[in-house]
Design a protein that fits this description.
By secondary structure, this protein is an alpha+beta fold. The chain has two domains: 284 residues, 3-Layer(aba) Sandwich (Beta-lactamase), CATH 3.40.710; 114 residues, Up-down Bundle (Methane Monooxygenase Hydroxylase, Chain G, domain 1). The protein contains 13 helices and 18 strands. The longest helix is centred in the N-terminal third of the chain and has 16 residues. The protein is globular, with a radius of gyration of 21 Å. The N terminus is likely disordered.
Length: 419
């Protein structure tokens, strides 16, 4: 499978003006001036300059930035265009395809069932999904070039499923026998019919590593979503709506691209090798998630809606009197669960469905130990920082994820903190 095909598969799995437009939208939080919550307006202009430059350079079509601190919305701006060809200005109430920013929502849904006593993190996955009782582990190739397998040294636990240490894969980041098996079996968001269908097919695949030994990004969040269905007795999307979205007044959060809201979506782009951006035809088929909801990708929504979700986590599981999780559950969710298991990023760990910054110095980026969040494949991200009482979010629609731009943006957010 060539690189462009892998990007397309993961996308399923998953005027050049610097002018700023602001719209009157239903605020997720009370509004405040930057200075009143300890941010510097002068220093925030550096953030504006960086995004404006990305738009002028053809690296971005447009973006929305949201920063809330101390429970108040201090910075919400739209830059550039939602669609380049029509010169449609970006709006703060634009819809964005969230891709992997779906994962923290899925984790919260499953943790709400943990709070109901439905399971323990140490429980074997096979206790509830017996098809995983006989999985094998890929251990390399023999002298004849054929893949070799062995029995797991311990069962996959539900904690492994939360923290990406089960041994599952995405099938697009590597080329092991396991990756190839996933691709041959068409285990992906373009072919699987549901989280149950995907999970059952994954149970027939070998693991790429012994459970609990390696952090490997994978379809684990979709197994989480199927566990939500198993423990709740409800379709995944129904449970998410009833337990999270409706209580938090996240009525602009949907799966996929519903036809009655499609005109509110920013256009999805990819970099043009000759410079600038090109439209991804059909929006990478993201609308498939409307009829086929998944746990690892598929949600869409507005920045204000996701701010409500993020602020709920920052506030210890509650927002406006609606408690979604207990404070102690959020603390456990946002703690590093990997220990000595490494991620691809030095100083960065992983909790229960969210990434966790352990050491900003080792990571090489401004931030706070204990900040958590995750990003999406079309260059969206959320930072939830309990130490600074801050939520910061960036949204655009360029795929694959522009890690360099997000790194610059993160540093510019943190350098704007004045006290």
């Amino acid at each position: 499978m060539n690189t462009s095909n892998r990007i397309a598969t993961l996308a399923i799995v998953l005027s050049l003006t610097g002018g700023i437009a602001e719209q009157a939208s239903a605020a997720a939080l009370p509004r405040a001036t930057p200075e009143s919550v300890g941010l510097s307006s002068d220093r925030l202009k550096r953030l504006d300059d960086r995004i404006d430059a990305a738009i002028r350079d053809g690296r971005s079509a447009g973006a929305v930035v949201v920063i809330a601190r101390k429970g108040r919305l201090a910075y919400e701006k739209a830059y550039g265009n939602a669609d380049i060809n029509s010169h449609q200005p970006m709006r703060t109430d634009q819809y964005f395809r969230l891709y992997s920013m779906t994962k923290p929502v899925t984790a919260v849904a499953l943790l709400s069932l943990f709070e109901q006593g439905k399971f323990q993190l140490s429980d074997p996955l096979s206790k509830y999904l017996p098809e995983f009782a006989h999985v094998q582990v890929y251990v390399g190739e023999g002298n004849d070039g054929q893949p070799q397998y062995a029995a797991p040294k311990r069962p996959i636990t539900i904690e492994d499923v939360f923290r990406h240490t089960a041994g599952f894969v995405y099938g697009v980041f590597g080329d092991t026998a396991v990756d190839r098996a996933y691709r041959t079996a068409q285990i992906d968001y373009g072919h699987s019919e549901s989280v149950g269908d995907m999970t059952h097919h994954m149970a027939s695949m070998p693991l790429v590593a012994q459970p609990g030994t390696q952090w490997i990004y994978s379809y684990a969040a979709d197994v989480q979503a199927y566990l939500v269905e198993y423990f709740s007795g409800l379709p995944f999307e129904t449970y998410v709506r009833q337990t999270i979205l409706d209580p938090l007044n996240m009525h602009d959060t949907v799966f996929g691209v519903p036809s009655d809201r499609s005109d509110r979506f920013a256009t999805l782009y990819s970099p043009n090798p000759q410079g600038g951006l090109v439209v991804i035809p059909g929006g990478a088929n993201y609308e498939r998630f409307t009829a086929h909801p998944f746990g690892g990708a598929g949600l869409s929504g507005t920045p204000d809606d996701y701010l409500r979700f993020a602020q709920m986590l920052l506030d210890g599981g509650t927002l406006e009197g609606h408690r979604i999780l207990s404070r102690k559950t959020v603390e456990m969710m946002s703690s590093d669960h990997l220990g000595t298991i490494s991620t691809p990023w030095q100083g960065y760990g992983f909790g229960l469905g969210v990434g966790v910054l352990k050491d900003p110095v080792a990571y090489g980026q401004l931030g706070s130990p204990g900040q958590f969040g995750w990003s999406g494949y079309a260059t969206t991200t959320v930072i939830i920082d309990p130490k600074e009482s801050m939520v910061a979010m960036y949204f655009e629609q360029v795929l694959p994820e522009d890690f360099g731009l997000l790194s610059d943006w993160t540093n510019l957010v943190y350098q704007s903190i004045a006290d």
